[in-house]
Amino acid sequence: MYKKLTIVSDTAILKKDGIYYAFGPVVNELESFEHLFDEITWIGFNRPDKKDDLSMKAITSTKVTVIALQEIGGKTLFSSLKILLRYPVMFFIIFKNILKADVVHTRAPSHPAFIAVLISFLVRNKIWWHKFAGSWDAGSLPFFYRIQKNVLSKAKHTKVTINGFWENQPKHCLSFENPCLSNEDIKKGKIIAGSKNFSPPFVFSFVGRLENAKGTDRIIEALQGIPLESIEKVHLIGDGPSKASYQAAAAFLGDKVVFHGFLDKEKVHELLSRSHFLLLPSNSEGFPKAIAEGACYGAIPVVSGVGSISHYITGQNGFLWDINGNIPYTSVLQKAIQTEESRLKEMATNVLELAEKFTFDNYIAQLQQQLFN
User: Fold this and answer.
1) Comparing 2-176 with 183-357, is the CATH topology the same?
2) Is the CATH code 2.60.200.20 the one for domain 183-357?
3) CA 303 to CA 300: how far, in whole Å?
C-alpha cells in the first residue's frame, strides 16, 4: 500500500449540504482502487451548475480530500485568454499537492492534467500514472489534445494508460480497459441478455452528451430511415445545450422517444438492460464506457469505428460504421434491424465477452501488475 495519492483532473466536483459530489463514473473508479492508499487528494473543477445532475455521486471515503479549482474552458479568444491567466494559479496548487504525494495520477486530456504532466519532467521522484482518455489516434484529436498526447508519448519516466492497441505504441504507454462494471453486473447481465428476444419492435439507447460530435443528429436521422413499427422505444440518456432542437427533430417518434437527461449508474443500467441496440455514431472517442455497459446486458453496439472502438467491436459482436466511408449511418442501422434474429442473438452473446474486460477487478489486477509492481 502507498501512503499518498494526488489525482489531477478536470472532473466536475461540487459541494452540496456539506458533502462533496463528483461525476459518478469517476467516483466509482476511485472507489475501486482507494484501498491501495492511505490518503487521497483529488483536484477537479468546481461545478455548482451540476447540483441537480443525477450523474453526480457523493464522495463518501474519509481518505479523500477535495480541492475544487475554478472551472475554465471555452472556444472564444476571450475564453482562451482567461485560461492562460488561470494557469499560474493552477500550477501553484497542483505543484504544491504533487510534492506531498507518493503517487500522482492525472486524467487527461485536460488543462490541470497537462500542467501536472509538464511538472513530471521536473519532479521525477514519484510514481507517475497518467491516464489519457481520448483517442490515441492523433488524426482525430483536436489541436490541444494532440499536444497532450505528444507530450505523454515522450514522458518515458512515467506510465501512461491509454485506450486500445496501436502500432508503434511506446513501451511506457500501456493498453488499459476503463472499468465500469462489477462482477455482480456481469452475473446479472448474462441472465438478462440470455432472456432477450431480438425480434421487432426494438429498443434503442444512446448514452452521452447530446451533441452532433457524439452523433445525436445522426441517430435521429437514421431512425427516420427505419419503419416506425420497428421501434418500441428510444432512450436518449444525457443532456446538452441543443436538447430542445433534438427534441423537435425527434417529434416524429411521438411517445416512442424519451429524453432522460443525465442519470445515475443504476438507472442507466436498467435502461440498457431493456435495450436491443446501443447507438453511438460519434466523431471521436477513446473507448466509451457506454459500449461496455451496454455489452453487459447484450445491447448490440451500432457505433462508429473511431478511436479504439474497432479494436473491440467487430462484425461478430456489433455493427461498425466507417465515419469516412461512403455508406451512411442510416444504412448500418437498417442492416442491424434487418439481421436475422438468430444472428442477433449470437452477436449479443459474443458482446457479453467484451463486457468482462471492463470489470473493476480486472482493472485492479492490471494496476498492480503493470503500474505498481
Assistant:
1) yes
2) no
3) 9
Number of H helices, E strands in the chain: 13, 15
Condensed to tens digits (0 to 9), the pLDDT of residues 37-93 reads: 999 999 999 999 999 999 999 999 999 999 999 998 877 777 788 888 999 999 999
Tell me the per-residue pLDDT of 146-173, one tens digit each, with 9 for 90 and over.
Answer: 999 999 999 999 999 999 999 999 999 9
43 CB-contact burial (10 Å; exposed 0-12 / middle 13-18 / buried 19+)? buried
**Is residue 168 classed exposed, middle or buried when 0-12, 13-18 and 19+ CB atoms within 10 A define those classes?**
exposed
Which CATH code is given to the segment(s) 2-176?
3.40.50
* Cα–Cα dist 205/353, whole Å: 20
Instruction: Tell me the three cell numbers of residue 320.
Output: 461498425
**3-state helix, strand and coil shares in percent for the chain, rounded to the nearest 5:** 45, 25, 30
Strands 231-237 and 300-304: unpaired
- Torsion angle defined by CA atoms of residues 267, 215, 330 and 307, in that order, rounded to the nearest 10 degrees: -100
User: Domain-by-domain residue ranges, the chain?
Assistant: 2-176, 183-357
Q: What are phi and psi of 274, to 5 degrees?
A: -90, -10
